[in-house]
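dumping this here so i dont lose it
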C-alpha cells in the first residue's frame, strides 16, 4: 500500500512537469539492482502517466552489480549504471587507463540491454560510496574532506580524464552520459560560496574549473558526430574526433608532464589550435568566457603538432 501511495504521489508531481522530464530511472532503496518485481508493479502506471518519457532501471552503483542481475522487463527503455575509476586503485596511471575500460563496460552493457539504450549516470572521478556495503550515498557528518570530493578543478584529472571518458563512452554508442554536479567541489564551477575545505580543495568563489571549458566546447558542437580514433599510447595522450560534413575537430589531451609532438595521420593542410595548460590556467579559471576570447593559433597539419605538458588542445581543421 505504501508503494502505491508513493507511485501515485510521484505520478501527480510528474504530470505537471512532463515538458521538463526526458527520462526517469527507477532504483530500489536496498536492492543493488532494480528488482523485476518492483518494475512489474510500477512500470504500467508510470508508462501511462509519463507518456513520451523514457523510463529505465538498473543500478545506482557500478556495472558489476548490473551485470550480476540485470532487470529483464521488456517494457524498459534503457538500462543504467554509474562509473568511476577508483574502485581498486588510486594512482594516476590507473585512473587514466580506466577511461578505455569504460568503452568495454558500455559495450557489455549494450549486450545486456539487447534493444534498449544504455545511459551511464553518473560518471565521477571519485567513488561516491562503497557498493559492496551501500546502495546510495549518505551525507557526510564529519568536518573532514569527503571521500567523494572531486578533482575536476585540476586540469590533469578534470578536463583531461573527462575527455577520455567521453571519447570511449561516445564511441561505444552510449545514449547519454551524466557527469559530476554543477556547482561546488564536485561540479564544473565553484559557485558563489567558498569551499568548506580550503586546505584540501584549492578553489575560490567564482572559480571556473577547466572541465567547464571542455563541456562548453562540446556543447557548441552538438550537431557534430563522434568519429572513432586511435592513439599510439593512451596513457600519454587521448583524442576525440568530431565531424560535421567537411568540418572536423580534434581534441587531444596530453596527460604527461613533458612537451611532446604528435602527428595527425591522413590529414594535411592547415588548422587552428586553442590550448589550455599551466601557462594560461590562472587566466582561464577566473573568466567563463576565456574559451571564446582566446585567439586561435594557426598550425600546419603536415608537421608534428607541439603539445605542452598536461594540456587540453582543441584543433579545428580548416
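and the seq i came up w/
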Amino acid at each position: 500500500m505504501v508503494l502505491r501511495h508513493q507511485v501515485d504521489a510521484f505520478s501527480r508531481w510528474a504530470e505537471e512537469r512532463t515538458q521538463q522530464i526526458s527520462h526517469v530511472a527507477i532504483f530500489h532503496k536496498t536492492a543493488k539492482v532494480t528488482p523485476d518485481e518492483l518494475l512489474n508493479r510500477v512500470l504500467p502506471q508510470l508508462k501511462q502517466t509519463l507518456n513520451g518519457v523514457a523510463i529505465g532501471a538498473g543500478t545506482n552503483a557500478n556495472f558489476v552489480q548490473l551485470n550480476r542481475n540485470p532487470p529483464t522487463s521488456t517494457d524498459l527503455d534503457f538500462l543504467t549504471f554509474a562509473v568511476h575509476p577508483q574502485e581498486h586503485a588510486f594512482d594516476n596511471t590507473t585512473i587514466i587507463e580506466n577511461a578505455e575500460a569504460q568503452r568495454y563496460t558500455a559495450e557489455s552493457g549494450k549486450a545486456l540491454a539487447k534493444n534498449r539504450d544504455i545511459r551511464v549516470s553518473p560518471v565521477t572521478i571519485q567513488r561516491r560510496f562503497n557498493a559492496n556495503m551501500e546502495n546510495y550515498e549518505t551525507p557526510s557528518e564529519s568536518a573532514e574532506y569527503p571521500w567523494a570530493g572531486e578533482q575536476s578543478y585540476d586540469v590533469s584529472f578534470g578536463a583531461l580524464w573527462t575527455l577520455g571518458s567521453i571519447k570511449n563512452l561516445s564511441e561505444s554508442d552510449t545514449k547519454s552520459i551524466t557527469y559530476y554536479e554543477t556547482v561546488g567541489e564536485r561540479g564544473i564551477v565553484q559557485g558563489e560560496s567558498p569551499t568548506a575545505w580550503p586546505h584540501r580543495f584549492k578553489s575560490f568563489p567564482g572559480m571556473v574549473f577547466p572541465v567547464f571549458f571542455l563541456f562548453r566546447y562540446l556543447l557548441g558542437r552538438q550537431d557534430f558526430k563522434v568519429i572513432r580514433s586511435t592513439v599510439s599510447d593512451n596513457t600519454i595522450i587521448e583524442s576525440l574526433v568530431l565531424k560535421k560534413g567537411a568540418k572536423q575537430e580534434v581534441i587531444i589531451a596530453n596527460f604527461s608532464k613533458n612537451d611532446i609532438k604528435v602527428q595527425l595521420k591522413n590529414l594535411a593542410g592547415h588548422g587552428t589550435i586553442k590550448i589550455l595548460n599551466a601557462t594560461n590556467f590562472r587566466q582561464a579559471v577566473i573568466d567563463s568566457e576565456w574559451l571564446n576570447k582566446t585567439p586561435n593559433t594557426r598550425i600546419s597539419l603536415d608537421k608534428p603538432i607541439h603539445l605542452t605538458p598536461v594540456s587540453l588542445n582543441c584543433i579545428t581543421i580548416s
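The longest strand covers residues 237-244.
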